[in-house]
Amino acid sequence: MIIKKSPAEIEAMKEAGRISAKVLREVGAAVCPGVSTLELDRLAERIIRAEGGIPAFKGYGGFPGSICASVNEQIVHGIPSASVILRDGDIISIDTGATVDGWVGDNAWTYAVGKVSPEKQRLLEVTEKCMWAGLDAARPGNRLGDIGHAVQSIAEAAGFGVVREYVGHGIGRDMHEAPNVPNFGHRHTGIRLEPGMVLAIEPMVNVGTHKTRQMPDGWLVCTRDGKPSAHFEKTVAITEDGPVILTTEEGHTRPV
Description:
Elements: H1 7-29, H2 37-50, E1 54-55, E2 67-71, E3 74-76, E4 91-96, E5 98-100, E6 103-104, E7 107-112, H3 118-136, H4 144-157, E8 161-162, E9 168-170, E10 177-181, E11 198-201, E12 204-206, E13 212-214, E14 221-223, E15 229-231, E16 234-239, E17 242-245, E18 254-255
Antiparallel strand pairs: 1-5, 2-4, 3-14, 4-7, 5-6, 8-12, 9-10, 9-11, 11-16, 12-15, 13-14, 16-17, 17-18
C-alpha cells in the first residue's frame, strides 16, 4: 500500500532531508586518496548525531554502517571497512540517511577520488543527469514508468547499462515503502503519480552490462562484468506544484 503524506507530514520530513543532505555533502568533501571507508562512516555518524538525527542505515536489517560505501565496480551496499582505502582514480558511491522524529531521509552521490579516467567521469555525469531527469518526471499525472523511462533513455543513449534488480522506493516513516521505483520502463505505464507520494529516486548505472552479482557478505552488490558503476539518489515529494526535493540544505526544499 502506498502511504501518501499530507502537506504537514511532508513539512515534517524536511529536517530528516536536510540532515541527510548535509552529511552526504560533508562526507563527500572528505573523500580523498588514503582515507578509509570506515573513517568516512564514522564522520557520517558524528554529523548525523550532532545535528539531532539518528543514522537511518545503522542496524537496518543488520547493516553495520551509517553509510553504504561502494567503490568502482561495486554498485550498492558496500560495508565500510578500515581495510578499504581509497586510491587516486577510484569512484565511490556514498549512500546515507538520517531519521528525525520518525521520518527518514535517504540520498546518495558518487564521488571522484582524485583524478579519474574519462570513462568514469562520463559515467558520473550521465548518471547524475539520469537522476535529475527521473526527479523531473515525478509530477502529478505522470506514471511510474515515466520516471524509469527518463532514466533509462539517457543511460542507454550513452551506451551504459541500467541496473534492474535494485530500484528506488517510497519513503516516509520506513526507509523502504511502496512503491518500488525502477530505473527502467515505458512512458505512460504503471501507477499514476499523485500529490503526497514521497519517493527515493536512485539511478544505478553501469559502464557495461546491467547484470549484477551478490557478494558473499550478503550485502555488497557488484557489476557482473567488473566494470564501474555510479549511483545518485535524492528524496522527492510529489506536490500539486510539481516535485520538491527534500534532501537538500537549500532552505530545506528545492523544486526541480
